[in-house]
Known about the structure:
- The complex is a heterodimer.
- By secondary structure, chain A is mainly β.
- Chain A contains no helices and eleven strands.
- By secondary structure, chain B is mainly beta.
- Chain B has strands spanning about 5, 10-15, 20-25, 30-35, 45-50, 55, 65-70, 75-80, 85-95, 105, 110-115.
- At the A-B interface, strand 5 of A face strand 5 and strand 10 of B.
Amino acid sequence: GQQLNQSPQSMFIQEGEDVSMNCTSSSIFNTWLWYKQDPGEGPVLLIALYKAGELTSNGRLTAQFGITRKDSFLNISASIPSDVGIYFCAGPNPNDYKLSFGAGTTVTVRA
Amino acid sequence: NAGVTQTPKFQVLKTGQSMTLQCAQDMNHNSMYWYRQDPGMGLRLIYYSASEGTTDKGEVPNGYNVSRLNKREFSLRLESAAPSQTSVYFCASSEALGQASTDTQYFGPGTRLTVL
């Protein structure tokens, strides 16, 4: 699959803080997806982005599809303990639609 | 409506043993997938089935076989398990791979496999 570089790899955050993470690719994507994986569970889709420049929110989560189509950003505002988990970016290969995943950002919240 | 279900949830094997991981979906999806998740590597596609009756290799197919038993069920078989296959395995399904960029994959809860 195509290489998606996600950063940071992990973060410890204080409850109530805003956090940001990003994902970059060497090639263009037409769709960007953000999944969250709770401990011991499978990934669940949080936000899907379909147009360059698009900004989409889902509760306290906001994601943006970068203008170059080679990056995407996810922000979590006012973090709470249940935000703990691994956040993955993903994108379907424009040729065959198979998903490539980033390595994930592990979020741990300090109470 | 259970979504995607997987059995077993945990499994320990000895090197050389075989086993089959089961997956079923009740969303009437055409496409199904098997991924493995290893620390620091995200999810990597092992095999997929774009529609009933077809299966294709993904990024890391060596050591695995699959069967699309019917529209609902897609199984993953390890014929001779190796320690390198210790991983968490996820099954996923989507409406129709390749039909639209909006096709969304839904994941099962995973099978945690350890090969000693």
